[in-house]
Amino acid sequence: MQESKEKINSDRQTQSKMLKGSSWMTAGSILSRILGAIYIIPWSIWFGNLYFQANALYVQGYNVYSMFLIISIAGVPSAIAKEVAHYNALNEYGISVRLYKRGLVLSVTTGILCALFLYFGAPLLDNGNPNVIPVMHSLSWAVLIIPTMSLTRGYFQGFQDMAPSAISQFAEQLFRVIYMLVTAFFIMKVVHGSWITAVTQSTFAAFIGSVAGLLILGAYYLKRKDYYNHLVENSNNKIHVNANHLYKEIVSQAVPFIILGAGITIFQLIDQYTFFDIMKIATDYPMSVLNKLYAIFAGNANKLIMITISLASALAITVVPLLSEAFTKKDKDGISRQLSNGFVLFSFIMIPAALGMTAVAGPLNRLFYGTGYNHLSANILAFSSVISILFGLFTVISAMMQGISQNKLAVKYFIYGTIAKIVFQIPMVLLFGTFGPLISSAIGFLVADGLIIRSLDKQFGVRSYEMLEKINWILIFSLVTYIVALAFVYLGNTVVGLLMEPYGRVGSGFVVSLAVLAGGFVYVYLALKSRVADYVIGHQSENLRNKLHIK
Fold first, then answer.
1. Fewest C-beta in 10 Å: which of 245, 283, 291, 516?
2. Residue ranges covered by each domain of the chain
């Protein structure tokens, strides 16, 4: 009986850790993504008719930069988080500190090397567009700093301390966006300079943001230094690991993180280096039109769906150290429960968010990007929103596989998904044009997701009745939310049409706000009324029910 109570208390503490960590990471990630999307409204206005060309250039430079950034980070932050959680669970905090210091050497080294490769290799990676070269040069500076910043975030996450990561992430985005907007306005509107120069400064903003984020993390580290020293002094100190073994441990954990962390970016690079050539065969569109079409699906839609995908990313970061802790203790039931919790929490947030964005795709697209290519842009955004569930799911379940030290298996399944993406890329683009890359990406992630979930279920039996029941209810509530939001879009367009231009930015903003509030309220009400929310947010759901007078 006593053992049963201790187990229940342990489960509650673990879930509490997960929820607290998820709250911080979700808040930081969402606020950062929203900032990273909202800047587009003034940015696009200041570029005017050159916006699609500017955005296509921005995206092409950023995709290559993202790949170099992932390589330079080398998966070390997530690997550090996993290993720190592992040794902390054994009360070996001294090794955790040594891991961080060894990781710093790696992060600084890889940052310098990758920054040099990106800077001097830019002419080889421009995809025939020389305007991309100065953009890559400006981005190489950020590659110097971000690996160290990301490593420090991973160290904090290993202690289940998510606040420093979330706050630094927000600060990084805030300063990046401020620099982007100030320089874009000055170059395009004050001095009427080159749009290529304006885009280059917008990408250099990544360096400005990374400096701000690193300073925030440094302040948190100094603030918590005494606490960490206290933990080290009271460690068991029974395990002795030499420096070479620590490096080997970090690298062996990091390499799979590179591939899996770059999953979405790898698919985007496949699109970047194949879309233009395939479309030149299929159509007689000039390069200016192809740039606009590329910007619509790879830039415009992607920026918005990453807001919802970031929710899943936040969850993935939280799940890894908790699963690692259960894996270290060889608690198979605990692993199964954590996996089930992760699936439900992912579904609870991601599915309604994705379907909600699908419902408001038309006015949301007009709000951010104006009326250019409006019908196509809205349809692309709606489709991207639906398949973003597959992208977000991959982010979560690949992290789960890493948390239980099945990195190689996860990489193998991702490779199968990438092969499927490549096989379907040409026929899908030839048949469906701008939708083609999205369809082939959906097929690729569907293959990878399906294989990983089947493996997890086979090993740990994650498909419990309780989990499936809750996910089914979440799906039903999400569909109801979608219908309500869509109805309010039509209602909003009608009402706004009586007062102002319904398809302008102001009118579209009103319609989006109305639909989001209506749909969001319906979803929250249904989740609280059915008690599904209790499983996800615990005792806080009872407080919400009382405030909203829900019985």
1. 245
2. 11-261, 262-464
